[in-house]
Write a structure and sequence with these properties.
5-stranded mixed beta sheet; globular; binds adenosine-2'-5'-diphosphate; binds magnesium ion
C-alpha cells in the first residue's frame, strides 16, 4: 500500500471516529436539526440540571399547598373574617419555595411577590398559614429530603417569606417567585400558576410553571376558563419547564421527578395565514386592553374569539401549541409589569420556538430590578409570525395617538 493510500485511510477513519471520540452531542450540534435533538435530551448532566430538578420539586410541593387552600376554602373551613384564603395560599407557597431554594442554593438572591409584615401582626393568620406549611409535603420521602424537609417553626417561616426581598438586578443568580399568579383565577376555580424562574446576570436560565387546573393533555383544546371549573382530578395539573438552550417540556404536575418531560413546541403557522390562529389574553379587563387586542386580532384576520384565562397559564398554553398568540397590551401607561409575572413564561415560550417582546419589539429586560420598567406590554407569538403580529400591534396603537 502506497504512502498516500495509507494517509487517506487514516484520514477517513479519523473523520468517521470523530463523533464517537468527542461525544455525540458535539457531532449532533453541528447538524441543522440540532435544536430538535437537544430539546429532547434535557438530561441530568446538562447545565442547570440541579436547579431545574429542585425548581420542579419546589413548584410541585407549593402547588399541593395551593390546592389544599382551594379545597378547604370551598368546604368553608376558612373563617369569613379571616384574611382571604388566597393570601394564605400565597404566603404558604412562597415560604415552601424559598425554604427549598435556601436549602439547596443558600447564596442565591430571591425576588418574590409577598412579604411577611402582615403576618407578624396577625397571630391568627400566621398560625393558619403555619398549619398548612408544616403539613404540606411531597409524597416521596427522597424528594422531600432533597428540598431540605420541614421548616423549623412559624418564626422561621416568616423569615423565609421575607428572604424574597431582593431588589433584583443584572448581577449574579436571582430567583423570581410568584407563589400564586392569577389570584382571581385561583379564587374562581379557573387558571392560576405557581411560578419560579432563575436569572443569571439578568438572563432567565431556568423557568418552571405549575398549572394545577390546566389539562395534562398537551393537545387538549384551549378553552376559556373563567368559571368554577377548576378541578385537580386525574386529567388536570401540568408542570411546564425550560432551560435556556435545552428546549421546553411538560409533564403531569403529579408525576414523580424521575418521569421525563415531553418536549413541547409552539404550533408553526405561516405568517400569511394567521386566520386560524388562537390568541389568548387576561380575563381581567384591568390587566390588559381587551379592545386594542380585539382590533389587533381583526387586523391579523383572526376569526376565532380570544381565549381568556388568568395567569402565566397563557404562556404555557401557547408554548405547547394549544394556542398561538398571547397579547398583553397596557391599560395604564404607568403600570410596570413584575418580573415574577413573566420570567418563567418568557423562557418557556422562547424555548418552545416562540418570540416574546414588549409592544416596541424589545425583549423583556429582567435585569433592572423587581419590575420590567424598561418594557411596556407583552407580545408573544411563534417566532416566524412575531414580526407580523408586532406590526399589527403597532398599527393599532399608533392609530390611537
Ligand atoms: N393594572 C395591571 N396591569 C397588568 N397586570 C396587572 C395589573 N394589576 C395587577 N396585575 C397583575 O396581573 C397578574 C395576573 O395577570 P393575568 O391578568 O394574566 O391573570 C397578576 O400578577 C397581577 O398582579 P398581582 O399579583 O399583584 O395581583
Ligand atoms: Mg402574578
Ligand atoms: Mg401572585
Ligand atoms: Mg398578587
Amino acid at each position: 500500500m502506497s504512502h498516500t493510500c495509507r494517509y487517506l485511510i487514516v484520514l477517513i477513519l479519523a473523520i468517521l471516529l470523530f463523533p464517537v471520540a468527542f461525544g455525540p452531542r458535539l457531532f449532533l450540534s453541528s447538524l441543522p436539526f440540532a435544536s430538535l435533538i437537544t430539546r429532547r435530551t434535557m438530561s441530568s448532566s446538562s447545565a442547570y440540571s440541579q436547579e431545574l430538578y429542585i425548581a420542579q420539586l419546589a413548584v410541585q410541593r407549593a402547588s399541593i399547598l395551593t390546592k389544599r387552600v382551594f379545597h378547604e376554602k370551598a368546604k368553608g373551613t376558612v373563617d369569613k373574617n379571616d384574611k382571604s384564603p388566597v393570601t394564605i395560599g400565597d404566603f404558604g407557597a412562597q415560604a415552601l419555595i424559598i425554604a427549598a431554594l435556601r436549602h439547596n442554593f443558600p447564596d442565591d438572591a430571591i425576588v418574590a411577590e409577598e412579604e411577611a409584615a402582615q403576618l407578624r401582626t396577625d397571630e391568627n393568620l400566621k398560625n393558619t398559614i403555619w398549619d398548612l406549611v408544616r403539613s404540606t409535603k411531597l409524597d416521596d420521602a427522597a424528594s422531600e429530603q432533597a428540598l431540605g424537609g420541614a421548616i423549623r417553626d412559624a418564626d422561621e417561616m416568616l423569615d423565609l417569606i421575607d428572604r424574597g426581598n431582593s431588589t433584583g438586578g443584572n448581577k449574579g443568580r436571582i430567583w423570581a417567585i410568584d407563589p400564586i399568579d392569577g389570584t382571581k383565577g385561583f379564587l374562581r376555580g379557573g387558571q392560576y400558576a405557581v411560578c419560579l424562574g432563575l436569572m443569571v446576570d439578568g438572563d432567565v436560565k431556568v423557568g418552571v410553571l405549575g398549572c394545577p387546573n390546566l389539562p395534562v393533555d398537551d393537545k387538549a383544546p384551549l378553552t376559556a376558563d373563567i368559571g368554577s371549573n377548576g378541578t385537580d382530578d386525574e386529567g388536570h395539573g401540568v408542570l411546564f419547564s425550560a432551560v435556556l438552550g435545552q428546549g421546553a417540556t411538560s409533564r403531569p404536575l403529579a408525576a414523580s421527578s424521575s418521569e421525563e418531560g415531553r418536549a413541547i413546541s409552539m404550533r408553526s403557522i405561516p405568517s400569511d395565514s394567521l386566520a386560524d390562529a388562537t390568541f389568548c389574553e387576561s380575563v381581567e379587563a384591568g390587566h390588559s386592553a381587551h379592545g386594542d387586542q380585539a382590533s389587533i386580532a381583526q387586523k391579523l384576520g383572526i376569526t376565532k374569539p380570544s381565549v381568556r384565562m388568568d395567569s402565566q397559564a397563557k404562556y404555557g398554553s401557547i408554548a405547547r401549541g394549544a394556542g398561538d398568540i398571547y397579547l398583553r397590551l397596557p391599560v395604564k401607561a404607568t403600570y410596570q409589569e413584575k418580573i415574577w409575572d413573566h420570567a418563567a413564561g418568557d423562557l418557556i415560550v422562547r424555548e418552545a420556538g416562540g418570540q416574546v417582546t414588549d409592544i416596541h419589539g424589545n425583549r423583556l429586560d429582567f435585569g433592572i430590578g423587581r419590575t420590567l420598567a424598561n418594557n411596556k406590554g407583552v407580545v408573544a407569538a411563534p417566532a416566524a409570525s412575531h414580526a407580523k403580529v408586532l406590526a399589527a400591534v403597532q398599527e393599532v396603537l399608533n392609530a390611537k395617538q
